[in-house]
Specification:
By secondary structure, the protein is mostly beta strands. The chain has one domain. The chain contains one helix and nine strands, in the order αβββββββββ. The radius of gyration is 22 Å and the shape is globular. The N and C termini lie far apart (78 Å). It comes from Belliella filtrata. Keywords: Signal.
Length: 171
């Protein structure tokens, strides 16, 4: 009897451990939070965003329509912070934290730095709160970027997702 009870307890324990391991393994979020950081000419840039996956979808022009304001990520709107005054595409932008939006286009996109810091998506976006808008070239790449990626580069920052890429020069 004791051996039977011990066997049942052992089986129950192994079952609970297995369930816990499976639950933990599947805990990755669909759009995990990411941070891109770096310096350009001694000026620190920090970009906080949620990184959705392509998952076989057509992103540019379909999931993310051309010509419309997009939150530039998933979940909370993406934020970008500069520790010093900068010039983006040659236009002045004061040090601070901004919500970052994009109006994507096939050839040219608009990068928007909005003064309202905490926003969810682009639902409450107000153009009157824009600190700066700059136009940047949109490019097609041959490499699939499964997850949305921001990268601080030696001369600015870029956004890549699916086969699309756009970047801004920061001075």
């Amino acid at each position: 009897m004791k051996k039977s009870l011990f066997n049942k307890f052992s089986m129950l324990t192994m079952f609970l451990v297995a369930i816990t391991l499976l639950a933990t393994a599947q805990d990755e979020k669909p759009s995990p939070a990411k941070t891109a950081e770096g310096e350009v000419n001694g000026k620190k840039i920090t970009i906080n965003y949620s990184s959705p996956a392509v998952k076989g979808r057509n992103i540019w022009g379909e999931l993310v329509p051309f010509g419309q304001v997009w939150r530039a990520g998933a979940n909370d709107a993406t934020t970008i912070e500069f520790d010093k005054d900068v010039k983006v595409q040659g236009k002045a932008l004061s040090a601070g934290k901004y919500t970052f939006f994009v109006i994507p286009g096939e050839v040219e996109s608009t990068f928007i730095f909005n003064k309202v810091e905490k926003q969810w998506g682009a639902y409450s976006y107000d153009q009157a709160q824009d600190a700066l808008r700059v136009n940047v070239s949109s490019e097609q790449t041959s490499k699939l970027e499964e997850r949305l990626v921001y990268e601080v580069t030696s001369n600015g920052f870029e956004i890549r997702w699916e086969y699309g890429k756009a970047s801004a020069k920061v001075e």
